[in-house]
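Quality-control log, excerpt.
Job 1 of 2 completed; input and output follow.
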Amino acid sequence: MSARSLTTRLLAIGGATVLIGSLAACSSGGSADTGSSGGKVQISYLVDNSTATAVTTKALVAAFEKANPDITVKVDTKPQGTDGDNLVKTQLSTGEMDDVFNYNSGSLLQALNPDNTLVDLSKESWAKDVDKQFVKVVSTDKGMYGAPFGTSFGGAVMYNKKVYEDLGLSVPTTWNEFISNSEKIKDAGKVAPIIQTYGDTWTSQLFVLGDFANITAQQSNWATQYTKNKESYAKEPALAGFEHLAEVQDKGLVNKDFASATQANGLKMLAEGTGAQYPMLTNAISTLQQDNPDAVDDIGAFALPAQNADDTNLTIWEPNGLYIPKTTTGDKLAAAKKFVAFANSSEGCKVQNDTGTPGGPYVISTCTLPSSVPPMLSDLQKYIDDGKATPALEFLSPIKGPNLEKICVQVGSGISSAAVGAKQYDQDVVQQAQQLGLKGW
């Protein structure tokens, strides 16, 4: 499973889909006329067909139309996954795209040739409030084309604060401190220091994918060089993720049933304190809220530590973006911009908070998390506030190999060494890079 498909898989966890993924199908009941009549303007809004997020779409459109009685919004839908991607590309190329559409940020956006197909939103009033890391994944040198919708989430270590308190442990900021904490937990007995759940093979990837922010802290242009085939996972700093995966197995720091345990088992261990630390995407907190609500306040999160504290950063999975195609003009363009602005206003954010479970912090300062969210989210927010967060590799490079999860299981099980696993992954991405026509491959 690729990094992108890992994200897609995890969007199904609990209610986090509402705020992280695209919105669901519904109709606002507006006129079928796509133009303006009787002083009203109708715009169309394209979202994916996920039924899990229908409530948010309906509520957002209703609130917007109430605040803007001269505008109606007709909601159209597209399939999820590759079919949806192809539909977006086709509609943009034929000039048939909706007036506003919800789509991925990052490398998939770059494949849409945004300089030629999308409206630059960098001069809009809300643009100054957007986190600079999100700006990176919706921009080119010529403009910023997307507005955020939903929350980000992190690739981090979720940990049981009670276990830490009982053993007098502090949140680690270096890899050696993380290993030291884990060995103290092991020596104390009864509690598994590090939870691994290879029964769900996609969960094996976090030591590698979650380490990406630490790679960019050491080499800011790594993603660009990787895309050009001038960097690889077989050497530092990227090799560290595979090395860490191997080390925790070699030192016996993982749960005994790591090979068969599922993510549900891992979260249960974390909630009950039979497992202390779980490298995982933080939108999993919504599942904990549902299954173990009494334990949610006991769960914290910290970034996967780098070798040096200065390099320890949080890897962030950015939310989707709202985009306007260049085919939207005149009164429709003005109305579309109002809709995008509304989605990122305090009113629009309230709709998101009222209809879903955040999986992480917002990436625009006009949106704030409700006081009722899990305390763990404030741990993530601190990294963003301190400028210690970086988008995951999939937002910066289109290269993602399909067999990473299998390779990580082998390394994490002690079947393959870190060096072998990294080399296998470098080979795994070659065909895909060549299919994309990337130079240097």
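Job 2 of 2 completed; input and output follow.
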Amino acid sequence: MDLVVVGLGYVGLPLAREACRAGLTAGGLDRDAAVVAGLAAGRSHVDDVTDADVAAMLGAGFTATGDPAVLGAAQTIVICVPTPLAPEGGPDLTAVRGAARRVSAHLRRGTLVVLESTTYPGTTEEVVRPILEESGLTAGEDFHLAFSPERIDPGNGRYGVANTPKIVGGYTPACAAAAEAFYGKFVETVVLAKGTREAEMAKLLENTYRHVNIALVNEMSVFCNELGIDLWDAISCAGTKPFGFQSFFPGPGVGGHCIPIDPNYLSYKVRTLGYSFRFVELAQEINTGMPRYVVHRAQQLLNNRGMALRGARVLLLGVTYKADVADQRESPARRIAEQLARHGAQLSYHDPYVATWQVGDLRMSRVADLPDALRTADLTLLVTDHSVYTASLLGEHARFLFDTRGRTSERPMANTELL
């Protein structure tokens, strides 16, 4: 095979799809038997990959398996396994180490091995390379080793694997050249980093930049509310400057697989040097505090209308971490619901992508008739701005709306409050 992808999740499966589209023979290795069986039957478990995409992949010769022996037939192996946050604040590399061991057991001379899992700088050379060299082969001499950060943006219909520039850092110049040649077969632009550490750092820099700037506007939203300033309008005005400014927007918290997690990897690495990464730690403090602030504001808004939060009918709109995807990882909606429940609110939710929703021991009630639910809720809290939640729908039916996403910022309405 030209390629075997280890880990067929939201990163690995789109990568395999693009390789198949380019005419490469590709396979996938995953430890989840349900994922393997579903793909074999033509079913996708990833939002950005349709069942039709899987059918086309199968038609192009793609096979998914749980048998690591498939690695022995691969010219290129790309590791796309998850790296969740470990208790000490760094990445949990259990899956990466396990994948590297499986690759090592089947590694052949001349193979290219690429790590795409997000991690701290040094992981490719300090963790993955020694495991691979247990095969008796030497990186940079007998096989090629590189790091290439994934840049998947779930739900983004404009940018995908093929047209998003691909950063590649090789263990040696020859390793970099091999990785560049591989990705160049199905990615329009390949960007060469100086080495694996620089490529690893680039990924963390991208997400730390977003994390810090989101924290900035989140903190501004708190005191702008106290000062009676419409921050959304201020951001809109500042955004007209054609240079030196990029618009970021406040929200109920950060979620997903990157922003709440990845900057902590860098902070963890810096702490091993005896320093603290104060920007990241402060941003984390601000962003993780936003769900609590949202609940506090909700309580204030109800109090101003002569109502208590306890016993109030509160409708949550959108419980995924971002608009128009089904992914719930690290969604602030969960923390908001937990705190509202502790205050005694009567909760219900609506989300076109989530049929059932469990928050702790509480199975949340999903509304079927959205306009009726908007009219009867004491407070509707827009948490995730799915496209179905139009300003006209909310303006026509919502009895009282707390808009944490700015959906109604350009259309001021009665009975509506912005974050």
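Post-run check on job 2. The two ends are 52 Å apart (CA to CA).
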